[in-house]
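ok here's Exosome complex component Rrp4, seq below lol
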Amino acid sequence: MIYVENKDLVIPGQILADDEYYSGRGTFKENGKVCSSLMGLVSLRNKKLRVIPLKSKYVPKKGDVVIGKISDVRFSMWNVDINSPYSGILPAFEVFGREKKELNKVYDIGDVLFLRVVDVDEIKKAKLGLKGRGMGKFKGGIIVDIAPTKVPRLIGKKGSMINMIKDKTNCKIVVGQNGLVWVKGDKDMEQLIKNIIHLIEAEAHTSGLTNKIKNKLYLAIDGELPPEEAEEEQDFVLEKPKLQDFKEELEQEERAKHEAKEIKEKGDKPNIAEVIEELKRKNKSKKDNGLSYGDNSNNSFILNNK
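and the structure came out like this:
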């Protein structure tokens, strides 16, 4: 038996389900019960329960793309703050190979970069690199900080949420998996996006969030709701007639199949009277060809040269 629903908010120690369910991340088992080990949102899939924390720190993983700020310049590397309890380093050879340059003339303290996690050691220290599309130093713009666990909601399914925000505001937006977001555009739009991102973070667990954000964007920029809203209501009203039309199309298709079947059967067993009438019509239109038809005893038809 389960005592919670998907996306329910739970607290540490709360009982989620009986022993027939499996314990996943953010949960533990005690006396045959699955319990939450932290405050977060329930995630249920195939009888496996997880609890996604509302707040968490970023733990670097190989292959992640992150936004980081240079915190120190050393002899052969830069120290990078990647919004994590774990440190990040950008080795000089990842930037300019074996060439020797003064590091602070390339990147200095306070510079914000878009990087990739190349490797993570046993103490979770992240080795960073700049190989990849768009990697490098950001110029201008603002940085917005959100919980790393809310990054997927900000991006949306197949990029639906973040692309909608970009298109409506005409701003450049880069999202790091470590919960840092770079935004550059008109100053008013930057602040609007900052507010929108924080709203998404606060309401990531709610349904219908994409439409809510869309409405907020249109109201803030155009002063009115998007026209698609009216169209959606109209489609809802016309939904029943559309289903009726679809049914009529199916019936017409069935009738056509039935007629085709009858024609095929007639083709297999020709109707003698219909064949005679067809030959008469052809003979009438071709009198000048000197052709006529005749009938023999076995109902076969032979064209004779007159």
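fwiw Residues 230-250, 287-306 have pLDDT under 50 and may be disordered. kinda neat tbh
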